[in-house]
DNA sequence: AGTGTGAATACTGTATACAGTTTTATGATT
DNA sequence: AATCATAAAACTGTATACAGTATTCACACT
């Protein structure tokens, strides 16, 4: 009979595609590729030392996640979101993160509490370092909350929405003003999870996430334009 | 200069993949392929008269949408959801559909109202016909609401969640008991959109969608089992 | 110099080919 | 007859090849 279901402990029989998805998504979230940049299949295939097929498959998965956009027979581009798009995504994010926060309390473990607290303190003590790293910490904290919600579909949905905002640098970590610094908000969210806050999950999440989106010139100047050799400094590996 | 952005009126330069995605998704939602069924790339390629590549790409897009599941190096299977999975998806659906319903009122047009009303009446007069068709009408009505919400990301998210429930026949249309018949609920939702209800969007959506999920034997008996020639009557075209 | 036209190039979408793994079938052993 | 081992077949993941379209470049024309 053997194993009908692959045992959870089995070595994950990974494929090139999953590695490429992770690498490309991280590169887009970290803004090494910027909105509007063209993603050339052959070039990426050369960079990663694989054929075009797994690159194509990875790009199509990212397209489904909203990070890149396909123009048929023209190619894949890092997606461009308007201010309005960001607002829409963010309002949806608020609803979903509030729901997640609501569910967290029931699934709280000592281990999870410890991890969240460590992240909060790491963020509070953040005074030097790049904006990218601040974003990475921010995302990691929220992902931990999504995971703690215990609803994997909620988690997956948020993972398909929020990275779009990060890819657009929709959050700013430059103002170290103590009151406004987004990283300082996270302890309040943790307090809600721990039941040590008098705010409802909705209130806490709204006050954390309700921001306006006004795009600076975040986009590649080549966006959707006739394709030219793009800046080569956005490469990696 | 020409067109920097493909004009909306342009003939959609479609690909084989998008046709396959639509065909396969419809087949899964209509339960011509059932949860647990194996989807063989070569076989589908032959059926549709194309090569394996566009079939693979279509299946991977459906995987991202949760309708099929990949077992690395084993193949794609129509996804199987446990009762618990259905509960989680449904609770998320309620939150999202309530949000959509809330947003609809602001975007209401005479044209949209006419379309929704037509669908409601079509459903109320539904007395004969298959369960599949009832499900199709149900889904069409809800999709119209999602679209009317004006938030394309909300729409896309719901389109990635709700079809999973339909693929599992999680809704039953067999009880023609007037009070319980789900198709009869839709007028109440429309009333909320029109502002003619004293229910809040949340209340209306909760009472419409809060159901329990208990799976009958909805699954293919071959689910995840050593692969055998599967029943050939689930083919099409 | 700027603009328009056509050839050359590059790229995507799809088909075919190949390698390694998984599944199935076959046959030996008890 | 049932179980285990081995060989054959089938399938996925990936690479390569090809066709058609989009883009770029070069050159003529004004």
Question: What would you say this structure looks like, in words?
Answer:
The structure is a homodimer of 237-residue chains. The first copy, chain A, is mostly helical and 237 residues long. Chain A folds into two domains: 81 residues, Orthogonal Bundle (Arc Repressor Mutant, subunit A), CATH 1.10.10; 127 residues, Four Helix Bundle (Hemerythrin (Met), subunit A) (Up-down Bundle), CATH 1.20.120. Chain A is built from nine helices and three strands. A three-stranded antiparallel sheet of chain A has the order 1-3-2. In chain A, strand 2 and strand 3 form a beta hairpin. In chain A, helix 4 packs antiparallel against helix 9. The radius of gyration of chain A is 19 Å and the shape is elongated. The N terminus and C terminus of chain A are likely disordered. Chains A and B meet through helix 3, helix 4 and helix 7 of A and helix 3, helix 4 and helix 7 of B.
């Amino acid at each position: 009979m053997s194993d009908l279901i692959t045992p959870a402990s089995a070595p994950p029989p990974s494929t090139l595609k999953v590695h490429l998805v992770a690498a490309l998504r991280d590169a887009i979230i970290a803004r090494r590729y910027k909105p509007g940049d063209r993603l050339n299949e052959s070039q990426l295939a050369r960079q990663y030392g694989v054929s075009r097929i797994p690159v194509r498959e990875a790009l199509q998965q990212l397209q489904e996640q909203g990070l890149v956009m396909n123009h048929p027979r023209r190619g894949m581009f890092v997606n461009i979101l308007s201010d309005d798009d960001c607002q829409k995504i963010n309002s949806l994010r608020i609803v979903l993160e509030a729901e997640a926060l609501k569910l967290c309390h029931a699934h709280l473990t000592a281990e999870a509490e410890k991890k969240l607290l460590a992240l909060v303190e790491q963020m509070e003590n953040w005074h030097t370092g790049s904006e990218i790293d601040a974003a990475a910490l921010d995302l990691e904290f929220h992902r931990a909350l999504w995971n703690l919600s215990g609803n994997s579909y909620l988690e997956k949905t948020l993972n398909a929405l929020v990275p779009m905002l990060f890819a657009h640098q929709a959050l700013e970590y430059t103002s170290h003003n103590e009151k406004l610094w987004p990283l300082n908000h996270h302890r309040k969210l943790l307090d809600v999870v721990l039941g040590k806050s008098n705010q409802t999950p909705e209130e806490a999440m709204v006050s954390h996430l309700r921001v306006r989106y006004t795009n600076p010139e975040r986009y590649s100047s080549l966006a959707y334009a006739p394709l030219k050799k793009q800046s080569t400094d956005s490469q990696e590996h």
